[in-house]
Amino acid sequence: MKLFVALLIFIFAAQVANAQGERGQQRTPEERAKRQTARLTEKLELDEAQAQKVYNLRLEQAKKMEANKAEQEKQRAERQAMREQMDKEMKAILSEKQYAAYLEMQEERKERMQERGKGKKKGKRGGGGSNRSDSDNDNND
Question: Which of 41, 58, 94, 118 qualifies as a cystine partner to 33, CB 3.0-4.6 A?
Fold first, then answer.
């Protein structure tokens, strides 16, 4: 048992050292599950059976997150294609001056959204409410 815990702590330390050299690289679901399990095993003093169950649970969750991430990337590409098609059709409808104004409105909207996004990336979680103001709701694409 003590050997198992020591082994997990060693794996955790090796993962941390490795991660510091590879900040920009994504870990596989297996690597994330091992790292999380090692940390929990150390902090919560899990026995071998608990550690295995935690690993299995974390691995399953990491794989689901990976699949979800792939689906989100696909949806993002689809939304981009839809926006490009919308812009193309708007250009055909609007005059040159109107289209320039339309693009300016789109850029301002993008900047507002980026500003709102900055607040979310500072460690906030949850909060399922909408941050849209009434004026934003009038400008739906």
Answer: 58
Mind listing the pLDDT tens digit for each residue in 121-137?
555 454 444 444 444 44
* 55-114 per-position pLDDT tens digit: 999 999 999 998 898 899 999 999 999 999 999 999 999 999 999 999 999 999 999 999
Asked if residue 134 belongs to a domain, the reply is: no
- 135 is a domain residue: no
> How much is the pTM?
0.47
Domain extent at residue 56: 2-80
In the chain, the number of structural domains is 1
